[in-house]
Amino acid sequence: MRISSGNRRYLALFFPLLSADRWQREAGGGASAPQAFTEKQHGALRIVAVDAQALSQGIVPGMALADARARLPDLAAVDHDPAADAALLARVADDCDRYTPMVALDPPNGLILDITGCGHIWGGEAGLAGDLAARLCRAGLSVQHVLAETPDRARALARYGNELPILALDLDEERATALRRAGLATIADLAARPRAPLTARFGAEMVAKLARVLGDEDIRITPRRVPPAIFVMRRFAEPIAATEYVLATLEALAREAQTALRERGEGGRRFAASLFRSDGETRRLFIETGTPTRDPALLMRLFRERIDALADPLDPGFGYDAIRLDIAVTEPLGPVQQGLEGQAMGEDVAGLVDRLSTRLGPHRVQRFGSRDTHIPEQAAFAFPANAVPDPSPWPKPEAGEPPLRPLHLFDPPQPILAIAEVPDGPPRRFQWRRRVHIVVRYEGPERIASEWWRRREGYEPGKGGLTRDYFRVEDERGRRFWLFRHGLYGSEAQSPDWYLHGLFA
Predict the structure, then answer these.
(1) Where in the sequence of the chain do the CATH 3.30.70.270 domains occur?
(2) pLDDT tens digits for 134-145?
(3) How far, CA to CA in Å, does 176 sit from each of 8, 80, 182, 185?
(4) In the CATH scheme, what architecture does the domain 1-226 have?
(5) How far apart are CA 358 and CA 301, in angstroms?
(6) Which site among 13, 249, 424, 464 is 20 to 30 Å from 59 CA-CA?
(7) 76, 34 in Cβ contact below 8 A?
(8) Domain 230-338 is in which class?
């Protein structure tokens, strides 16, 4: 049964000489002798990658270094650096974002791009693939690329060519050996056989992989980044280098995105500007807003703040040949109430938060949110001020009643010496910071038990583990305190300790 791909198109890239290309880029030129990249496997050095010279002499990955040198004595050995290869592949993937936001890593040494609906900008899919291949060639990277209707088929053709061996199925050695013994050495051999006998003999997993490689089943790729809700892009015939030109382009893109957002009745919360350099490097600038917006002037102020706050200034190199603006997060944005001077209500505070967060970093400008718990010190937490609003509302005090919780909490609670008329009664006097306070009024107790599902043996002084009896007290000078007795008298503690947890205004 053929599962329709919805006319999707995929471009697979395979870099067969990635390690050698990276080494030559870093060295600034080619090597005079054939090179092999080795790593120790089971106590012996084995070749995991080679350059074009070594490959032409019959040296292939998987060979032992000793066997390779017996065949090619002048073979140079270099330690394999998979982390550096992965970093280079990630930079190439970043540059591929100029063609489509749907880019997925395909290890080892591969990428897969979902280019559905993207080819018209280059005059068709072939034009896009040709432009990308030429760009990679100028960067000194050898690449094999194939277009296909499913990612698995594109991947297989890019790595193995038109005559697909059973290696294209990525089977384990036992199953691959069984196929060869049955006289099935290529994908074409398997395609000519009925599916039911293949499933019975080799398993449903192998048949499912076969269907994907043949293009009968489309399993969508998982992009490296979540595709933005809206994106707009500009390409330049000649690269631009001046920061003012970059900002002018971003402003034009922001106005174009404004139209798209207005049609959807939405505003953006998270924006990303991607600056694609002509040498393949990519720089990204991120901004967030506390409230949804589609105001280009506001976005440009924030982007200018971001550029001014960069520790590593923008380096255009030989210039940017493409700029893209992504709106990663959107929210509904209805009509905004205007003040007497035409400014949106609350815009001053929201704009200040956005500017400070952009300049200082989102985690340096915070606000408090409410957490659904009865433990006082855990009921509030700090998070970035321009983040998505906290879903838990703050508890509202009873009308005409004093606040149940103080404005200032001590963390940890402050130990005090307290005297009560009876062991489980309210405090009559207490000593804090070498000063004695006489209690003239009190309210309580408010009993708060520890979270039994988190309780462990023992307890932290002044914190979890034991039951707390809280009292709101007022001393002879009118100052109000929040005290608690830690532990139930007799059952949890013979002589419970007292703590000062907060101060009322």
Answers:
(1) 1-226
(2) 999 999 999 999
(3) 30, 28, 10, 9
(4) 2-Layer Sandwich (3.30)
(5) 10
(6) 13
(7) yes
(8) alpha beta
